[in-house]
Amino acid sequence: MIWKLYLSGEIHTSWRQEIIDGCKALDLPVTFSSAVTDHASSDAAGDVLGKEELSFWRDHKSAKVNAMRTKTLIEQCDLAIVRFGDKYKQWNAAFDAGYCSALGKPYITLHAEDIIHPLKEVDAAAMAWATTTEQVIKVLRYVISQK
């Protein structure tokens, strides 16, 4: 089996690449997908549907266009990793975790200890909580290869 992993959340650090590299080093049978991680491109996703004067409507249209990708990839994944960074609030990541939970998709949260309280419901539905990408990789190795 080739596992389909969805990487959700924070876009300002290299956590995605660290997990990809770690899984590759272990030769785990995985593929990865993610939301669009280029902030400007994501913000402009709905611009092809026409110019908006108010930023609310631009964001609204772009969110819907982006959701087509996100919903489809989450529905197709076997497992998701949801990263919450410390610099920005990743409301979209919390939404992705909730969608995973509603679909019965297992997910791992990845975040620092100082945001345990605001993420208590998100973590309660997660199958694991990790504080480092190394921990995520070790969980993936065990789940996928039983080692």
Defining key terms:
single chain; 147 residues; alpha/beta; Rossmann fold; five-stranded parallel β-sheet; 48% helix
What does this structure look like?
The chain has 147 residues and is of the alpha/beta class. The protein has a single domain, classed as Rossmann fold (3-Layer(aba) Sandwich), CATH 3.40.50. Strands 2-1-3-4-5 form a five-stranded parallel beta sheet, with helices on both faces. Helix 1 runs parallel beside helix 6 and helix 3 packs parallel to helix 4. The longest helix has 22 residues. It is globular. The two termini are 16 Å apart. The model has no long low-confidence stretch (mean pLDDT 96).
Topology:
Elements: E1 3-9, H1 15-25, E2 30-34, H2 39-43, H3 55-76, E3 79-83, H4 91-103, E4 107-110, H5 120-125, E5 128-130, H6 133-145
Parallel strand pairs: 1-2, 1-3, 3-4, 4-5
Helix pairs in contact: 1-6, 3-4
Which sequence of strands runs across the widest sheet?
2-1-3-4-5
Largest beta sheet, briefly? 5 strands, parallel
Query: H/E element string?
Result: EHEHHEHEHEH
Number of domains: 1
Rg result: 16 Å
CATH architecture group name: 3-Layer(aba) Sandwich
Unreliable stretches covering 5 or more consecutive residues: none
Q: Could you tell me the CATH topology label.
A: Rossmann fold
Entry summary:
The chain is of the alpha/beta class and 147 residues long. It is 48% helix and 16% strand.
